[in-house]
Amino acid sequence: MTYRHGVYASQVPTSITPPRKVSASLPVVVGTAPVHLAKDGTGPVNKVTMVYTYSEAVELLGYSDAWEKYTLCEFIYSHFALFALAPIVFINVFDPAVHKTDVAEGEATFADGEIKLDHGDLLGPVVVKSQDKATTYVEDTDYEVDRVAGVIKRVTTGVITAGATINRTYTYADPSKVTAADIVGGVDGATGKLTGLELVNEVFPKYRLVPGLIVAPGWSSASTVSAVMTAKAKNVNGMFGCKAIIDIDDATVTRYSDAPEYKNLNNLTDAAQIVCWPKVKLGKKTFHMSTQLAGLIAQVDADNEDIPYASPSNHNFQMDAMVANGEEVWLQPEQANYLNGNGIVTALNFIGGWKCWGNRTACYPANTDPKDAWISVSRMFAWVGNTLILSHWSKLDAPAKRRLIETIRDSAQMWLDGLVSRQFLLGARVEFQADENAVTDMMDGISRFHVYMTPPSPAREIDFIQEYDPAYFSTLFA
């Protein structure tokens, strides 16, 4: 050792590690978007795409009011225009190169200078020929095409005469060819690339954000889709947890009393699921409830420092009607409570306008464990777990000595103490217990920290007990 004589200073790593920020309600939305209408004429297909603004979403993914065909557009409008929240991660599975149909329409005559094709949403050129097919006319010289509406307009200066009969051949985007299997996705055998819901695992590696909600409006009612959504929500990247928001098919279930049976028959009974019924409307626009519920959950989180300790129940949806299979639905409190008692979230117009109504995950009533059955409590457990993973990832593979154990324990405890002081948790503690850390496990490099925590449960019932007290007659003689 070098001989030393003097006063010295040195540094050691900070024993308390600050937590990383986790977006508790980041929605990962899988569906179809009109990417052929994107700004550059093409868009992402089976790629993870994060956007922060309405205009950015339209530019990258395209937009159409035909929400029944392009389900991601519904979410774009709801999340950005109605709830003003960001960001969103989209996974579009509609591929214009695959999901298309070629059409050769027979003879037709221009009426008022235009011809309406049988389809809109056109891809590529529309080939127009004369009646005898001997002449091929030139687009923009002899005719113009509105590709969105599917209309051919005669150019008066062109060679096509008024009232001419023509033949036309074209290709249109056909999202009806997208199937539930495309939403589920998988691994491409030829390229090894992930598709559909499998891409959920690429969100964190690409953007360093943990999925908070998995949504597939228009598709989640398919049992194959909901099953994979649930599996992904329970095990993102092999370690993170989140929630899958699933719609009960309102075309099949038109009465509230039939919803619990549908829920059980379709295996919608997992704590990782939030199940809702039916759809909601705002003006002339109809939304899957999962779309608006994702927005409302994110809005409630945003109002609480992005901490998911509060339930979305009894907060306002952006709606003016509730519909099942196109017909308005009006639920009384006892009917809505019946759905809640079966683990189904719905909407109620009783006091204060249209509200989200329901606090339970899909596992209720079969599973009444508070950490599983309450939406807010279950989300808090997932969020705390996700945050602890991210905050202490840098400690992996360090020598498992006393300083490491104390640093992890004390860092986690200080962060949890902060949540308790702000009443996001009623109490919490972290312990490194001997009975949970066998010597053989420690030898194998495994350390276990036991986190005790109690998020507040929703005040789902408030009772006022009234009693007639004749003793107050004495006030008459005061």
From TrEMBL:
Which superkingdom is the protein from?
A: Bacteria
Name recorded for this polypeptide: Phage tail protein
